[in-house]
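Hello again,

I reread your note about wanting to compare the complex against the isolated chains. To keep things tidy I'm splitting this into two emails, and this first one only covers the full assembly. Below are the input lines as submitted, including protein chains and any nucleic acid or small-molecule components. They are followed by the predicted structure of everything together. The single-chain runs will come separately.
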Amino acid sequence: MTESILNRVIATRPAHDGALTVTGLGHRTTLPLAEFHDRARAVAEALRRRGVGAGDRIGILSANRLEWVLLDVAALMLKAQTAGFEPGKFRPDTELIERYGLDLLFTDAPLTDDAPSRAVPISAVAGYAEEEATEAFEPAEWGAKECTTVKFTSGSTGAPKGLEATAGSIDSSLRAVQSLFDHRPGDDILTFLPLSLLQQRYWLYSALYWGHDLTITTYQSVFAVMSTVRPTVVMGVPAFFDSAKRHLEAGLAAGAEPAAAAAELFGDRIRYLWTGSAPADATTLKFFGEIGLPLFEGYGLNETCIATKNHPGAHREGSVGRALDGKEILIDEEGVVCVRSDHPVNTAYTYAAPGDSEKMFKAGGIVRTGDLGRLDEDGFLYILGRSDDVIVLDNGKKIIVRPVETRFRDTGTVAECVLYCPSQAGLVAVVSPHPGPVDTDAITEALASVNAASEADERITRVIVADEPFSVDNGLLTSQFKPIRKRIADRYRDDIDNPKAGINAH
Amino acid sequence: MPTDLDTLAREKLSQVLRDHPEPASLDRDEDLVQTYGLTSLNKVLFLTSLCKAAEVGLDNFTEDDLSRMRTLGDVVDALRPHAPQPTAQKG
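Full-complex prediction:
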């Protein structure tokens, strides 16, 4: 029987030299993973003395920090479940605690005098790690179908859906990714997305097991610390790499040498760059390849975990790679990508509206993603669009909006483009401008070129330029930087519906 | 010796803005996000390149400091105490 990576990680003090660094603007802490394991164990014991045990649920609502991962591993040792909440999207109040059945909630948000008694400052965890052990403690063991954590989907509408993840799915994904990328001592994986996203914690489990280094920082600090961290791998979403590309291009235009410019931003040890969670621009993928920093795109949802991935051994332009071990990609009769897992993340949501689970989870460990795709003869997956982003015209023609949106974005005049069809008069685009003054003439020209390259039914009749770039902060991008179609529509509804608003196509 | 900090900050901000506006035209009191559309990532890229050019250690600042830098003037004022002293003042 295959060893459980997760159970080994929590039961065994690392014998390797891997280290964990937690850093940001103005601070940096590095400790050997063996010492991290000791501290996590001390935190587990301290939590147990406070009554936390198997079957309990610990909420964590905090920005990335050392205490976050100490709590995570401590909870695994106790067989308590974690629920990671993204900062800014939740409040540490009684409603949160009761809604998600939390026994304790650790948070970095200020707690007022009337805060619920089960809410605890996450800074207290550092003290737990220093407490003396009072009795023998043996870390627990997880069964493959038991759920270690609840993760929340950053859905496009309504309240986030809560999904519990099985230990078996985590083991399966860790093993499959390792077989593609061979992370090893000497590697340092840099991660900065919120630790509330389970996949960001995978790299900690991977480091504990395979002995590579891990650096955790934040979205706000990543560009400031990256060159001095000198990572070998950077995990980022496409928007991150788009920003890096624009920065590097400015340097190249000013005469910088590509390798030197890349090293100045990313450090001088990059082995490869990882992206996923949202579609990456072909131009961005190509750019990084050309400057010697290969960027590999993959595909997966919260409900499937990582399903496909390009990697050094099998990479095809325009695709999101082939299925990982333990996954199978099926395209159904409507062209929708379905993912079958040997070890499913789960078979239903724990928190969701009636009908949501049935829509997503099918029998046999299959998830119907809602994305349209195709497989080539060698099993590489190409994502063609979201099935719920299909506009059906009165002539019966279906328009998959994503390729048109991508075409507009690829003109370089806008950061994002989202299409709507308010009437049969034609498509209307809401575009997110790049930082700086809006260049209406350039957008008008881009509109003409996009329309020239599109089929008649795909023609955009008007462009609404958003009054500020879409961002996570203004609620128009998910935490993984995907435009939130419905919210953008709600925000710009008047302009979308007003035939006189915006830039008209000629 | 770096150029005058205010001038340097304008140059670096212009570089991270898409259309590279004339540095002198940038208003030191305008909001970097609302007016100039700087994203969080671009803001830290701006600060990083400015600190390097101004010979100011990035480790002087925290994320909280960064979030308090709302305008070009805020950035210049935050960096100034850490910048190398000029060897000669303009007369």
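For quick reference: The mean pLDDT of chain B is 85.

B.
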